[in-house]
Amino acid sequence: MIIDEIKRTAVAAARQAGALIKEKSGKSTTQTLKSNAFDLVTEVDKECEQLIRAYVQKSFPDHSILGEEAVEPGSYASEQAVKQMQYAEYLWVIDPIDGTTNFIHGFPASVVSIGIAHQGVLIAGVIYDPYRDELFTAGREQGACLNGQRIQVSGEAALQQSILATGLPTATQARSTNMVGLASLAHHIRAVRSVGSAALHMAYVAAGRLSGFWEIDLNAWDLSAGSLLVQEAGGRVTDTKGEDYHLGVRHIVATNGRIHSELLHVLNEWNATGYEETEQ
Ligand code: IPD
Ligand code: CA
Ligand code: CA
User: Fold this and answer.
1) First to last CA, the chain
2) Helix, strand, or coil here: 93?
3) Does residue 192 contact residue 164 with C-beta atoms inside 8 Å?
């Protein structure tokens, strides 16, 4: 079955890139700024992407690849790149290191994220955390696994019992809006965590370690694998307005399903969806 072959290749590539991340973590590598002072890239990001591309090209030479490091920095370029490629026959969406800032500082929370779509529909997703040797995999209608064992989302039924995660997006306006969201949620939730990797947050929602995750202005490579994982683990993934996830979604809400509407309601009530800027 093609999904299984794709998953095997994605896992092999993610494991090799992950080994490189672990080996080089916190050791000074050349770092450059991308769109602004919060948007960083290192030689290792590029090396990991090359390595993953080589795996794909060897096993599936006719598949298309959307890799973060081959796209110009900034939200606009990312949106355009996704628009151009999202309905390709087979598309590999690669974040070679999700958590580059952590990688630079030696904070052990960076993952490799690879999502594979067929004509715009995600069919496989792999997220690998090399520090804990945790491999999260999902195949459409095959469920989600952590190191080969089935996982499922948590059971909290209300925000009050929930542990959520979010992040600091790179664009400055998005940062402010996301913090409005956090301030508005602070009194409704049990706790919030922010470990600096959107993909890892999504994998943890799938594994039931977090009740939900939201963040605005993210890219297809941050979200594609994690979205399939959460869905296949029984959760729900939409944008901040409640529209079903697709590769073009940038403002994400991924939860165990049970707290989803409540979370959407708070973000919308407090104008913290990320769509406010475009609506003005
Ligand atoms: C970043 C991480 C971070 C999120 C940022 C992303 P990168 O990805 O996912 O958690 O808050 O918005 O850009 O740059 O490390 O691949
Ligand atoms: Ca990322
Ligand atoms: Ca990255």
Assistant:
1) 48
2) strand
3) yes
- The one catalytic residue among 217, 222, 232, 239: 222
Among candidates 11, 115, 111, which has minimal Cα distance to 59? 11
Tell me: pLDDT of 33 over 80: no
Nearest CA to ligand 1 atom 2: 197
Is the beta carbon of 95 within 6 A of some atom in ligand 1? yes
Give burial (CB, 10 Å; 0-12/13-18/19+) of 220.
buried
Indicate the pLDDT class of residue 37, thresholds 50, 70 and 90: confident
Nearest to 128 by CA among 139, 136, 116, 120: 136
Note the ligand closest to the C-alpha atom of 201.
1
Beta strands in 211-263, from DSSP E residues, in sequence order? 212-215, 236-239, 252-255
Continuous segment of H or E residues that includes residue 51: helix 43-59
Q: Tell me, letter by letter, the H, E, C secondary structure of 126-144.
A: EEEECCCCEEEEEECCCEE
Asked if residues 18 and 134 have their Cβ atoms less than 8 Å apart, the reply is no
Q: How far is the CA of 144 from the centre of ligand 2 (A)?
A: 21
Does residue 32 carry a catalytic annotation?
Answer: no
| Whether the predicted model's global pTM rises above the 0.85 cut | yes
Catalytic residue among 49, 69, 98, 215: 98
Q: How far is the CA of 15 from the centre of ligand 1 (A)?
A: 20
262 with 238: CB under 8 angstroms?
Answer: no
Q: Measured from the CB, is residue 274 less than 6 Å from ligand 1? A: no
Out of 117-126, 166-175, 235-244, 252-261, pick the least confident: 166-175
Residue 128 clears pLDDT 50, i.e. is over it? yes
The full set of domains in the chain, from first to last, is: 2-150 (3.30.540.10), 159-279 (3.40.190.80)
Specify the higher pLDDT residue, 73 or 254: 254
